[in-house]
Amino acid sequence: MNGAREKWTSKLGFILAAAGSAVGLGNIWRFSYVTGTNGGAAFVIIYLVAIILIGYPMMVTEVAIGRKSEKNPVGAFKALAPNTPWWLVGALGVFSGFVILSFYSVIAGWSMAYIFKAIAGFTPGTDFADVFVGHITGTGVPIVWHAVFMVLTLGIIAAGVVKGIQRWVKILMPVLAILLVVLVFRALTLPGAGEGLAFYLAPRFEDVTAGTFLAAIGQAFFTLSLGMGAMITYGSYLTREENVADNGGWVVGLDTAIALIAGLAIFPAVFALGYDPAAGPGLVFITLPAVFAEMPAGSLFGFIFFVLLSVAALTSAISLLEVVVAWLVDEKEWPRVKASVIIGIVIFVIGIPTSLGMGPWSNITIIGMEILDFYDFVASELALPIGGALTAIFAGHVWKARTVIDETNDPPGAIKIGNWYGVLVKYVIPIAVFVVLITTLIDFFG
Ligand code: PHE
């Protein structure tokens, strides 16, 4: 491709788009369900450590790689290390984008369906676990919502980056944050909320295993949209006048805050209303409607919430599809519209089994996991951490930590990346990821 690359048009453009990518189902749906199945507070602490030691440095790394190369992930590695196999890391990212979006869209479809359940009304005394199971075990309806969500995603991507993404996020995120805070108040004042608060905030380290660490690392990558090149791609649209370290700091801070607040709304309610914290992927869809049912004007709040959650999912899905489309547009010279439509359809088809796996195909398991769990495990706990660790090795040893540090501090910002960065990307991150990964796999298969 010739000519100047399209860039974010406003000063906030990158932060908005990157925060839009980061904040999504990962913060609310996945964070709460993974926290619930991994025992609560101890997991949350390990997750926070992973955000600081792995998430933030990798955010800076990916944005720097993108801004410097002005390329999609595959092209970026080719540009920075020509004639080496490092582009395969970018290709792994494109693969992750496919897999994640295929199931992400199914969950986002549930969220959209719940907008209509809210309109119909959330009434006290309903068994919301039943309602949820009734919805997801359906054959056609969840797939139709999955299709609707993919059409929205590919439509925005076909329209192009700047026009498509920026404007949504500015309005959405503050409203979502406020609504979550309202929910926190309602949840904390439910009788019996204390037990949930203890689950969420008082760690019991005796239950921690290597698997807890891998889940925390996987969640850190997933929630920050790292390890698959989304932030490389978004960084490639960032102008040279912006500081990478500060921009990255904002995105990581916002994303983490939203997840922590969501947990504070969900766990007290789970215990107060007698649901199971380890309910799995259904947790927010079961618990939050029950909270809304306990609130004045609860169905209205529920309606607003599921609209916001769906839009948050959309701004994340856009970044997943953008990685794949940017690769086809830059490297294979496909027209943007053609790439968006074809890839959108392929991902829709790959997602169908995850939807059916909840209902008619629920007896199908792969290495003991349901189809959704299997897709999520392969992408979030294998592909993202491996992609991230390889990116760290690349940045530290091949492109050189010094180059990244200079790139991130030019122009200087409030946060200054120092030599600690080199220690993290060269040694701490790759070693931590591979040790945890290998130990978990040995536990799992051994
Ligand atoms: N970060 C997004 C979320 O939390 C999901 C995502 C993962 C987006 C990887 C892009 C890349 O919902």
Q: Which terms summarize this structure?
A:
single chain; 446 residues; mainly alpha; Hydantoin permease
Helices and strands in order, then pairings?
Layout: H1 13-22, H2 25-37, H3 41-69, H4 73-80, H5 87-120, H6 128-136, H7 140-159, H8 161-188, H9 193-201, H10 210-223, H11 230-235, H12 244-272, H13 283-293, H14 298-331, H15 336-356, H16 371-398, H17 401-408, H18 420-445
Helix pairs in contact: 1-8, 1-12, 1-14, 2-10, 2-12, 3-4, 3-10, 3-12, 3-16, 3-18, 4-5, 5-7, 5-14, 5-15, 5-16, 6-13, 7-8, 7-14, 7-15, 8-12, 8-14, 9-12, 10-16, 10-18, 13-14, 14-15, 16-17, 16-18
Give a structural overview.
The protein is mainly α and 446 residues long. The protein has one domain (11-379): Hydantoin permease (Orthogonal Bundle). Helix content is 76%, strand content 0%. It has helices at residues 13-22, 25-37, 41-69, 73-80, 87-120, 128-136, 140-159, 161-188, 193-201, 210-223, 230-235, 244-272, 283-293, 298-331, 336-356, 371-398, 401-408, 420-445. The model has no long low-confidence stretch (mean pLDDT 93). Phenylalanine is lined by residues 21-22, 24-27, 100, 222-223, 225, 228, 230, 316, 319-320.
CATH classification class:
Mainly Alpha
Which percent band covers the strand fraction?
Answer: under 5%
Main beta-sheet strand count, sense and barrel state: none
Structural class: mainly alpha
Share of helix among residues? over 70%
Total helical segments: 18
| Quantity of strands, as a count | 0
| Cofactors and ligands | phenylalanine
CATH level 3 topology: Hydantoin permease
Q: What is the overall shape?
A: globular
CATH superfamily: Hydantoin permease
Order of helices and strands: HHHHHHHHHHHHHHHHHH
Give the domain tally: 1
User: Mind telling me which CATH architecture this is?
Assistant: Orthogonal Bundle
Output the radius of gyration: 21 Å
